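FIELD: query
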Amino acid sequence: MESHNLRTSPVLILGAGPAGLTAAYELAKHGCSSVLLEQLPQVGGLSRTEQYRGFRFDIGGHRFFTRVGVVEKMWHDVLGDQFLVRPRLSRIFHNNHFFQYPLDPFDTLRGLGIWEAALCMASYAKAKMTKSSKDAKDLESWLVANFGNRLYRTFFKTYTEKVWGVPCHSIAAEWAAQRIRGLSMWTLIRETAKSLTVGSSKAVTSLIQEFEYPRLGPGQMWQATQAYLEERGSPVVLNSEVSRIVWGAGGVQTVESGGVEYRADNFMSTLPIRELFAMMDPAPPAEICAAAASLNYRDFITVALVIREPKLFPDNWLYIHEPAVKVGRIQNYKNWSPEMVPDPAYSCLGMEYFCFEGDGFWTTSDAELIDRAKTELDQLGLCSRDKVEDGVVLRIPKAYPVYDNGYREALLVLRKFLSTQLPNLQLIGRNGMHRYNNQDHSMLTGMLAARNVLGLGPFNLWEVNADQDYHEDGFRLTPEEIEELERSQPTVPSTPN
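FIELD: result
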């Protein structure tokens, strides 16, 4: 490689999503520069905000809620007063009826009718006597143990299998432990009772009633972070897809992207693990390549519809449990922030579909997908198709790391290889660690990885969220680690908006 194509930096970060940008931000606050490589034309990863005709929409919806103080501090240091406090409303649409989500026992039983409600309660009582979620090895067993077989089949099975494309018994129980830990029928009954009396000082995270949200969508947060970094000499190189990762004794040596060779002392990666290992030169041993190749992903399509209607329904988003339609979730972007829609006479809905990259749905033309989304919206009775004025399709590969049988064993093999052969490479973020987490968890992994580089650790990133603790219910750091993380935050001015 020609010398003029060689660039050096103390730290090279692959991917400018929440994890990568947070790592660079943490480094910059301590006076350490970095370079970020991002294959897309904008930052934010899965938390970016897309635009079409002035309408803004998310890749899914991104609540800004966390129990991790240093993450919340970064949000407000970067965006200041640009946050809105939004009421949370999300419901399940099932059998032409809206049910509150998280499930409210009284609302659910009322919506089901007396006879069906009695059968569901009997099923739940039977599960409590015969099953324990602690013994559950798969998602179906976990849900049945916590809600009973009948409620599981009514409210969880159809939607979950839409999302993952496989039966619930093929999904590891860790998914539930990580995403909905602490939530069960008994928890719902208890929290509902408390809300009727004195309330609860520490509600289960899944039961939160409001959250913060940037007025121009989550991408506003990450664009402001990008500006902060570039003002301080940490460039973000867009449209820069990694093509080769050269490693040898001592770890990663260089990364090639766009005809440029990048050399650094320390590397971080948010790339999907399967892709990361496929790019390594020389190729790792066969068993390592096989472990990486065994990791699977679920892909995602958003069909954003521009609708000539000022108000459609009050929810931020809806879960669609109707088996007759393929749409799994519907985002109402105007209810996240009024500024997501340029004209108050309009609404914009995100019809969200889950699929596998390359399957028949993924390869369907944009025109057919938009027509299908309009038809299903009409079929559900949520909006007449003749009110839909326009639409745009966005395909998101590898949106969800899959917790299938064997993924845990594969990760253990890869982690051992990383720790012994690539000590200067840290994996961070959702796809970087093959963990189905939210943006605050991804941010924390980036923050701690930066502190490892700075000599403020060591932090074992794989212990964050260990023991299947739900990521918004507190991280598995020792009290001493948390105290040090909070105490050693440098004071920096907010980025001007």
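FIELD: remark
The chain has three domains: 3-50+66-82+216-292+405-487, 103-195, 297-401.
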